[in-house]
Write a structure and sequence with these properties.
With 360 residues, the protein is an alpha+beta fold. Helices cover 38% and strands 16% of the residues. The chain folds into two domains: 184 residues, no CATH class; 141 residues, Cathepsin B, Chain A. The strands form two sheets. A seven-stranded mixed beta sheet has the order 1-9-2-4-5-8-3. Strands 6-7 form a two-stranded antiparallel sheet.
């Protein structure tokens, strides 16, 4: 009986570890870390009303097996902002598929991944159609062939075929007129999405071109106002308890993974070394903060020792890895919010960049 229970437990942990859908972006370049300017402010507000922001958020989505985290955080930001301003409800669902295509086609990129400022510029220029008009395809066309992929991509040159695999449409549509596109494979679907995106853009206030946030006080003031903030961050597998942490010999806590707890990459840790050798990025939507909340982690160091660290101060965030694995039992300011998480402020400030989105 003991052996059988142990086997069941092992199988469950392996499934939990390897099928979590936590796909990453390529590493970010030129991140601008915020100035930490709140330490001497005795009158600062130490905690935001996180639930007031969460109530206006759209549902947690899953990016599936594509490196589209920043696409999802950008869409979630606009969805949340529309609900907060009373323009729509939190049931609004915008098309990440559309934004991912624009990202690939506009940059002529043959690798997955984007970054927030580019995503916002594309939203400002082209608008966003609804999810029902252009649903997200979570499959990775680089690793599996579908009838749709064959239909849309088969006659393209090598580099353009690669772009089509990533963006799910002919990358040349981006520079073609609708009359030409409509007669090509996938063209009718694309043109419908393009036309609806333009209508959505015309129906909402214009967006400000100022995105970057440069100080911690500005970030926290915005969260106090009930407005979300995007965090683009360099990824450390151990801090996130990601499945690859075991592959790289870093170690992980499935308990903290389930609770959505993200620690900190100590400089002389195995996590720091291995993650810098296997660089990646991730993007999430911050919904609040708590300067007094503590996170305790156990970290394997490069000298072979194991140390315990406690960090004070966290940000709460909405993720794009679904609700059944990461953050499945996340406690967000006293409420269980599956698919959410919390990350140490120390990690966020030292390795991330922060972005806002406003209507003019």
């Amino acid at each position: 009986m003991i052996i059988r229970l142990s086997l069941i437990s092992l199988m469950a942990s392996l499934t939990f570890a390897n099928l979590d859908g936590a796909y990453l972006s390529r590493p970010f370049q030129n991140l601008v870390h915020p100035k930490v300017d709140t330490n001497n402010d005795k009158n600062r507000i130490t905690k935001s009303d996180t639930q007031s922001v969460v109530r206006n958020m759209s549902s947690v989505k899953s990016q599936g097996s594509r490196g589209t985290c920043s696409i999802f955080s950008a869409a979630a930001m606009l969805e949340g902002l529309l609900a907060i301003q009373g323009i729509t409800t939190n049931q609004v669902d915008l098309s990440e598929e559309w934004l991912q295509y624009l990202n690939i086609a506009s940059s002529r990129s043959t690798t997955d991944g984007s970054f927030t400022s580019r995503n916002f510029k594309l939203i400002r220029r082209f608008g966003m159609p609804l999810e029902r008009t252009l649903p997200y395809d979570s499959s990775n066309w680089e690793k599996s062939t579908s009838v749709t992929e064959t239909n849309r991509c088969q006659n393209l040159a090598t580099s353009e075929y690669k772009m089509c695999e990533l963006g799910h449409f002919n990358p040349n549509f981006y520079r073609m007129n609708s009359q030409t596109i409509i007669n090509l494979p996938g063209g009718d679907v694309y043109v419908n999405a393009k036309e609806e995106a333009a209508k959505v853009k015309a129906s909402i206030p214009s967006l400000s071109p100022r995105y970057s946030m440069y100080s911690v006080s500005e970030i926290k003031e915005r969260l106090q106002q009930g407005l979300p903030v995007i965090l683009d961050i360099n990824f450390f597998y151990g801090a996130w308890n990601h499945r690859k942490a075991e592959e790289y010999g870093i170690g992980r806590s499935l308990d903290q993974w389930s609770k959505g707890i993200v620690g900190y990459p100590e400089y002389r840790s195995v996590d720091y070394k291995k993650s810098m050798e296997n660089r990646a990025g991730h993007s999430v939507l911050l919904v609040g903060y708590d300067d007094d909340k503590e996170v305790t982690t156990t970290v394997k160091m490069q000298d072979g020792t194991v140390k315990t660290f406690t960090y004070k101060g966290v940000y709460f965030f909405k993720n794009s890895w679904g609700t059944g694995s990461f953050g499945a039992s996340a406690d967000i300011d006293g409420n269980t919010e599956p698919g959410y998480g919390l990350i140490t402020q120390k990690y966020s400030h030292e390795h991330g960049s922060f972005y806002k989105l406003d209507f003019n």
